[in-house]
Write a structure and sequence with these properties.
alpha/beta; eight-stranded mixed sheet; 265 residues; 41% helix; Rossmann fold
């Protein structure tokens, strides 16, 4: 898969499928491979562009200046590189921050938005949480324990009922060949902590879907959705049983909601 020299980094990206162009933007510490559970089905309807955000995956170097705005600039510069005039942007968590920022600062390049597990800002609790997870990485916390602790915030209680599923997820995370460095994780965490989009939400003019898990404890729906509905005309879709990472835990429901919103057959 290719890389593009953009804004001082070698940005890795993948392209799958054909049709209207849909860019999938991953969250903190995640990259293009986090979309594996939904790639095949979405690629039946769209041309997918999956970048590895700066500081993550196969985009190099990892330890570079990182802000939400810089990652947005990278994503939109990739469109120029590929000669794509506009795109639907679907972002998860931090990726939703990026998606909203792209929509306001590059309105001509973003046609529609899907915000999965999103908020418009990082709460004080979550800033402490990000800082603590960064400290655990820096001090050498055992990898399996670190990922398992992270999963408590990403997945529903039901996920943990099957120990084989949990252990396999941990194994895949630990053995992933393109891990994020502690410094790069800290850079992305600081970018999230510094981001507050509440005042800009009314400036989002694109048709927008707010896709949220009812059991999301990282961005609780009763807090996040009320704020995000400042986006004019935003549609809300809640997934029963799902937590923060809907596309990983409930891929069929995720694809169904996305296709329904985007009018794909």
């Amino acid at each position: 898969m290719p890389t593009a020299r953009i804004n001082g980094i070698d940005l890795y990206y993948e392209v799958h499928g054909s049709g209207p162009v849909l860019m999938l933007v991953a969250g903190l510490g995640s990259d293009s491979q986090s979309w594996l559970p939904v790639i095949d089905e979405l690629a039946r309807h769209f041309m997918l562009i999956l970048p590895d955000n700066r500081g993550c995956g196969r985009t190099t170097p990892h330890e570079v200046e990182t802000t939400i705005e810089l990652i947005s600039d990278d994503c939109m510069a990739l469109l120029d590189e590929l000669e794509i005039p506009s795109v639907i942007v679907l972002g998860h968590s931090m990726g939703a921050f990026i998606a909203m920022d792209c929509a306001v600062r590059y309105p001509q390049k973003v046609s529609q938005l899907v915000l999965e597990g999103a908020s418009a800002f990082c709460s004080a609790r979550n800033r402490w949480l990000l800082e603590d997870f960064g400290a655990y990485l820096k001090t050498g916390m055992e990898s399996a324990q670190w990922f398992r602790s992270l999963y408590y915030w990403l997945f529903s209680p039901q996920f943990f009922e099957d120990s084989q599923v949990v252990n396999e997820a941990v194994r895949l995370s630990v053995e992933y060949p393109y891990p994020q460095s502690p410094a790069a994780y800290a850079n992305q965490s600081r970018a999230i902590a510094a981001f507050d989009f509440r005042n800009q939400l009314p400036s989002v003019r694109q048709k927008t879907l707010i896709l949220h898990g009812k059991k999301d404890v990282l961005f609780p729906p009763e807090e996040s959705i009320d704020v995000l509905q400042a986006i004019p005309g935003a549609c809300v879709s809640l997934v029963e049983g799902a937590a923060h990472s809907i596309h990983m835990e409930y891929p069929a429901a995720f694809v169904d909601r996305v296709l329904g919103f985007l009018g794909a057959d």
